[in-house]
Amino acid sequence: MIADATLALLGLALLLGLWCTRGRQRIARAALLVAATAALYLTLLPPTMTEPTVGASLIVVTPGATRVQRDALPRGGDRVRLPGAPRLANAVPVPDLATALRRFPEARDLWVVGLGLPARDRDAARGRVRRFEPAPLPRGLVELAAPQAVRAGEAWTVTGRVEGAPGGRVELADPAGAPVASASLSADGRFQLAALAKAAGPALFRLRILDPAGERVEDVPVPIAALPGAPLRVLLLAGAPDPELKYLRRWMQDAGLDLASRVALSAGIDLREGAAPLDAAALAQVDLAIIDARAWSALAADARARVEAAVRGGMGLLLRLRGAAGDAAVERAVDDWATLGVPLQADKRAVDDWATLGVPLQADKPGSPAPLVGQPLAADIPLTRLPWTVHAADVAPLLRMADGGTAAWLRGRGQGRVGVWLLADSERLQLAGSPAAFGSLWSGVFQAIARPRGRPLPELSPDPRRDERVRVCALAADASVRPANGAAESLTPDAAGCAGWWPRSAGWHVLSSAGEDVPVWVRDHGEAAALAHAEQQAATAELVSGGGPVKLAGTRIWPWPRWPFFLAFLAAVGVLWWLERGVREDRVNT
Amino acid sequence: MIVDRPITRLRRSVARRRIAIRIALLLPLMLALVALFGRQTGIAAACAAAFGGAVLLGLLAWRTWRSTDAAWLARRLDALDPRMEDSAALLTHDPRRLTPLAGLQRQRLQRRLAEQGVDARPVWPRGALGIAWGAALGVLLAGWLWAPAPRSAAGSAAGQPAETLATRLVQARVRIVPPAYTGLGAREVPALDAEVPAGAQLTWQLRFAPEPRAAALVLHDGRRVPLERGDGAWRGGLALAESTLYRVELTGAPALKGGLHRLDVIADQAPTVRVSAPEHTLSLLASGQTEWTLDVEATDDYGIAGAQLAVELAQISGDSVQVRAQTVDLDGTALDGTRHVRYRHTLDLAALDFAEGDDLIVRVLVRDNREPAPNITRSASFILRWPAAAPADVADLDGVVQRTLPAYFRSQRQIIIDSEALVAARTTLGAERFLDRSDAIGVDQKILRLRYGQFLGEESETAGQRGEGGPQDHDAHEHGATHEPSAPPRMGDAGDVLAEYGHTHDSAEAATLLDPQTRAILKSALAEMWQAELHLRQGEPALALPFEYRALDFIKQVQQASRIYLARVGLELPVPDESRRLSGDREGLADVRGTLAPATGGAQALGQAWQALAGVGAPDWNALEDQLAARQRERGDALEAMVALDRARADPACNACRRELRARLWPLLAVPPPVTGPRREPDALGRAWLERLERLHGMPEPSP
Questions:
Q1: Between chains, do A176 and B589 touch, taking CB under 8 Å as contact?
Q2: d(CA A402, CA B301)
Q3: CB within 8 Å: A151 and B675
Q4: Cβ-defined contact of A269 to B591 (cutoff 8 Å)
């Protein structure tokens, strides 16, 4: 296109020139004009030459490549260096990888050295990276995993890995700067810390990494968005009061849930909170029903059918098992629950064990207590699991214990979910002085089982950074993002609900989608630099593919240098000028 | 070139007019732009811009002057006046170089000019001038309305240009005179914030520009310290007992810049006592030991006034215990002035009449030089015991009998005896000493009450002491040391995990229960003790005596009660109605409803403010301020948050101030019970998957 236009323009100019050529030495001047035009054209668009190539990889030197790595590179082969990369003999500086690939179109694959390819170059490199030699990671935090959002009051955990500070410590400081948790780094630099999200709203914790001498290595902000709660409508039916119920009801009241409960005390006498009708209309409003085995057995057949129908319609159902295997009501409820897709069986292993010990087979003896897994504040409080287990292919464990047992199970049923609660004494978390652990445990269970009413949280690409593209998914059509002090900027999600976003400022932003606001922290350029490098390296390492699917010709197309044509053009124009000058003087004199 | 004088004059006048017209056209626009620029960036920049504009206009004038040359004038004259006959250029030529005909024409023209002057000056372009001034006015108006108010004048959002109208604090001096006993010299600080020793006298000396009519310091708790005017400065004083915030309030002058100032009080610490000998609180008499050496070191932040040794000899024979008490003043050797003193004392056991089976109990009381009342620290009690010969019949109980330190507290009977003795000695004692002793008996009464209260599952000692922390609180003597009132008002708050993390809705779980009758009697006894303590604390032992007697009476009844039940579980079941039992009579039974009481609302405003400050809107400042003030009254840890609040409130555009306030609010936030929310909806794909599954497995699966 450009070549054609240039050609046309030059041709026109040439014709005009020839038309105007009069006077002495007309032929010579016309010839010179043609020569100058041709030389100009070749300067602008030099011809290409084709030469056979060795088909070697293109070596891409990225920032952070060490001297050792650079010295170890093979002598031959084409090499380019990306902006910020150290100098290297014979390496052509290129502004980005796509340019390098245009300059070296014969490059069959890439050999990347250094900290890796930045985000803008990864698409160009996809499927081409044959080999990646990562540079050693800088000192500091290189892995970080913290929840994007938690509910207010919940306990949360941050884990990560620190490079280059063996024997050091990490401290988690709260927004006021006071340390709330600290831990020593393990041999491979890993750590795990827990803290509480006190109130709804964004809170900026800080992770201080200290070396063994107590010197500050790095200070990385850990943003936590605490979301306010929603008043779930909970229906609680129990055959008898028990300590777990006591604290569960207390917690539900304190957490602002809309609780309707009926705890049987005696024949026809209940402990009631609110109205707990079991008709279909009422059940359609309930988000979560918690029913224990005795209450289940006491339900009429049609009430059970209505509960099951409500589950298919989306209601959550948590079945609590309290009671021995020999209890007729429990047995009956367990039989019944099998039709809900959660067939329970007494733990055969325990039963067999006890049989070999000569103890009479009593399936109602619980196993040894063990702490729960994944509950940061409850890690050292052993709890007891009832010796039941669920035998079905498609149930999922909801809560695991440190001894490998499962304390709660979960399975989908229509649009709703059914959970089975086998923990005998979760109230011990509360009694051990950790109401936050108790509440966090139940909050997590409720959020896993209750009726799906909440919009999905927007999913962001990890660790949003200023001036780097952030991919946001699960957005509603009205999504917008607003910096702490600035105007809202609307996002335009595609059909899949994903949108791109370039944060222009660092700090807290509010991502609004479908009426829900989620605070998002955008890191600044220099913030958590080691983490950014590590992410870049990991992303580059993911690009490495073993086979080279791109098979290009074994020749290399190479543009002629421009300078000889330019010299020729200058010479022709110079001579032309000299001749034309003579012609002009002639004209003036005449 | 020789040019006539009239022509030169003409040229000059024309050039002047041209310059005037051009300037008049350009000036309004330039002025408008300078004014707008000045509004945006300040007066200095406006001056610079005006200077630049003047230079530009000057250049323009110079160019116009230069361009208005003779040739121009000639053209102009030709165009203007037909009488010039298109030959005005001749006027500008040297007549000697002209041809005769041209010279003749030149003379004609000169004559015509002289006869009838020509006004070659351009007329004022009225229309253009009007448009120029109108446009300038429009630009000015539009700029004024559209341009955003500049940052520096954020205060002017409220309608007052802050820069020029705020009063300046020309001089600020606070003279701090610590109490004499501290031995610290007076000093002056050139700032409004200071750290001062407790009880220091502060004198402010402030100069303002412009002068206000009146000035006062307003403390955050509402107190006002009016400032007096004298030789150019405003002066005022205050004796400071606890940390506080204040602001300077002016009448008749614009407010000062800068918000709250902070005065931190460094409390006078009680002395610390370290006993190096004896090493243990209970020592047994070594064989051949005739004396007992005590070695005590005491340190204090300002100075130690003195130390006493309280020696009590408990002579025990059988069931009767005789106690003799005496006090010895100790002489110390100063290690670091009066701040660090070492006391050595040797008790001669023989002189004390120490015999087999006796306990010798000593305590060291160190007081510092604080005024008006010293801080007194008591060491632990050290006991020297001369073990009585063990009776033969308990030899088998070795493993059972444990050597524990007995709890020392007075019996109700002892309290009555003390009270009667005090009433009798009333005339011989001074009023203050009488009050002190009465109060001490009151403390004994309290300890006894708490001791009995434990049997009823009442709250323990710390809870019982809340709100009793007066400066003269002798009660605290029982626990080792008196503390400054401004020291953290509730010791042990930091460890009060239950209060911080949860609600205590019922605490009787582990209480010891008595049978109901005994319980009732004991409750009556406690009620009497309350009354007795009340009167004793008020220094009226005579009034307290009847209550003491009644309490003793009740206690005797309790002691005579047949049994005391120790319940393992704190569950008080109602007594079953035996007449209805097993009769099947269900009359009057009903559901139990609504037993869950909502938790008492905590500091809601703090959490709301924490959330609101993260956004762009303003939180409810008044509610937050009230909450912080209440918190400061209760716990005394909200001063920093109050300062931050003041700053953030004064400057709504200051993001750093909001962040600072949030950081200060965080420690004050209560930990709420974790909230929960609904399950997140599956996306379209997930929903379709579930629906498909439902269609496939519409029927319940058979259990395996």
A1: no
A2: 53
A3: yes
A4: yes
Interface test with A, best of B613, B654, B660, B679 (most A CBs within 10 A): B679
Note whether A400 and A373 are within 8 A (CB). Answer: yes
Give me the residues of B, 624-683, that contact A with CB < 8 A. Answer: 655, 662-664, 666-667, 669-683
Burial label for B313, CB within 10 Å (0-12, 13-18, 19+), is buried
Contacts of A230 in chain B (CB under 8 A): 675-678
Instruction: Please state the domain count of chain A.
Output: 5
Task: Write down the H helix ranges in B323-430.
Answer: 349-352, 412-424
Same domain flag for A56 and A26: no
SS3 B638: coil
Q: Compute the C-alpha angle B366/B367/B369, nearest 5°.
A: 145
Domain extent for A174:
149-228
| Residue among B610, B675, B683 minimizing CB distance to A229 | B675
Report d(CA B599, CA A486) in Å as an integer. 39
**Could you say which of B592, B673, B675 has the minimum Cβ distance to residue A272?**
B592
What phi, psi does A544 have (nearest 5°)?
Answer: -65, 120
Rounded CA-CA distance A27/A12 in Å is 19
Asked if residue A434 and residue A332 are part of one domain, the reply reads yes
CB hemisphere CA count around B654 (13 angstroms): 18
Cβ neighbour number for residue A229 with a 10 Å cutoff: 24
The reply to whether B164 touches chain A by the CB within 8 Å rule is no
Q: A296-333 pLDDT, tens per residue?
A: 888 888 888 898 889 888 999 888 877 655 566 777 77
Residue indicated by tokens 């610590």: B178
Residue, of A7 and B4, whose pLDDT is higher: A7
Residue from A237, A246, A254, A315 whose CB has the most chain B CBs within 10 Å, to mutate? A254
Query: What is the spatial distance between Cα B112 and Cα B118, in angstroms, rounded to a whole number?
Result: 9
- Residue A363 shares a structural domain with residue A338: yes
Residues 6+ apart with CB under 8 A from A74: A59
- Looking at chain A, how many residues does it have? 590
CA nearest neighbour of A246 among A534, A37, A438: A438
3-state secondary structure of A251: helix
pLDDT in tens, B533-583: 999 998 888 899 999 999 988 888 877 765 544 445 556 777 878 888 888
- Chain B window 574-603: which residues touch A at a Cβ cutoff of 8 Å? 586, 589-596, 598-599
Whether the Cβ atoms of residue A146 and residue A376 lie closer than 8 Å to each other:
no
Q: Of A309, A367, A160, A536, nearest to A171 (Cα)?
A: A160
Q: Note whether A249 contacts B: Cβ–Cβ < 8 A.
A: yes
Q: Which domains does chain B have, with CATH numbers?
A: 5-149 (no CATH), 166-266 (2.60.40.10), 273-389 (2.60.40), 412-482+506-560 (no CATH), 604-668 (no CATH)
Same domain, A156 and A79: no
* CA of residue B117 relative to chain centroid, distance: 87
First to last CA, chain B: 125
Q: What is the pLDDT of residue B587?
A: 80
A561-585 tens-digit pLDDT? 888 999 999 999 999 888 887 766 6
DSSP at A109: S
Domain contains A453:
no
| pLDDT at residue number A76 | 64
Q: Give the residues across from A58 on adjacent strands.
A: A110
Whether B690 and A415 lie within 8 Å, measured CB to CB: yes
**Nearest partner of A574 among A39, A108, A87, A192, judged by Cα:** A39
Cis peptide, bond prior to residue B278, ω within 30 of zero: yes
pTM over 0.80: no
Of B475, B491, B265, B477, the C-alpha closest to B375 is: B477
C-alpha B284 chain-centroid distance? 52
Task: Look up residue B477 and give its two tokens.
Answer: 């003597």
